[in-house]
Amino acid sequence: MQGGILLRVATPSDVPHLAPLISESARQLSRGFYSDREVESAIRHVFGVDTALIEDRTYYVATLNGALAGCGGWSRRNALYGGDQRRVGTPSFLDPATEPARLRAFFVAPSAARRGVGRRLFEECQEAARAAGFRALTLMATLPGVPFYSTLGFEQVEDVTDVLPDGVPLRFVRMTRALDSLAH
Ligand SMILES: CC(C)(COP(=O)(O)OP(=O)(O)OC[C@H]1O[C@@H](n2cnc3c(N)ncnc32)[C@H](O)[C@@H]1OP(=O)(O)O)[C@@H](O)C(=O)NCCC(=O)NCCS
After folding, report:
1. CATH number of the domain that residue 32 is part of
2. For residue 67, which of 13, 15, 20, 139 sits 20 to 30 Å off, Cα-Cα?
3. Do 158 and 174 contact (CB within 8 A), yes or no?
4. Its pTM surpasses 0.90
5. Range of 34's domain?
6. pLDDT band (50, 70, 90) for residue 3
């Protein structure tokens, strides 16, 4: 299946196509982790593209056998999670020598789930972050993201609850991983 996965750097023209993918990914792949109310609130207030990553050329689109299959990226900026509608953290640049790069906004189409798209996006991000001089990665995982990132070698740092603007509390797990220990 890996042979059918292709990545490219996302451009502003991708954003309208990514929005429905992100909503569908969240709705279908969050089942058993978040309630419907939590997912709909997250789609409104949290999940989405942060166009700062597109400007930085650190956000990627994945296709599987020619069809849009997922998106995800990394960031050299301080913001930790959230789309344009509610970015959490400042857009200032990180120091690669002392601060971890961010892994941001991974979403895979339900029809492409568990076929290695997320792992391929991660590999691209880790290589790019390492090439930029970063020594570690950190991220704010959704609950469905925790088993995925655990498989990729991330460790749980802390449980975080973000109360969204409509009063819905959404649970996340902050996770981190060294880049130096990666084998390839
Ligand atoms: C999390 C997500 C990005 C994973 O994408 P994916 O393309 O399905 O993941 P992969 O196929 O690359 O999986 C790699 C490995 O991660 C683990 N994994 C992935 N999803 C998992 C799940 N739901 N439960 C348990 N393990 C999982 C498995 O070990 C898997 O390897 P395997 O399929 O050979 O067993 C996807 O489920 C998703 O988009 N979820 C909804 C949106 C979301 O919450 N994103 C995370 C934002 S922080």
Report:
1. 3.40.630.30
2. 139
3. yes
4. yes
5. 2-137
6. low
Whether residue 23 has its Cβ less than 6 Å from ligand 1: no
27 falls within a domain: yes
Count how many domains the chain has.
1
109 lines ligand 1 (CB under 6 A): no
- Mean pLDDT of the residues in the chain: 94
- In this structure, is residue 67 part of a structural domain? yes
18: Cβ below 6 Å to ligand 1? no
Tens of pLDDT, residues 5-55: 999 999 999 999 999 999 999 999 999 999 999 999 999 999 999 999 999
Residue nearest ligand 1's atom 16 by CA:
148
Q: Is the CB of 26 under 6 A from ligand 1?
A: yes
- What contacts 24+ positions apart, CB below 8 Å, involve 14-17? 14/54, 14/61, 14/71, 15/49, 15/51, 15/54, 17/68
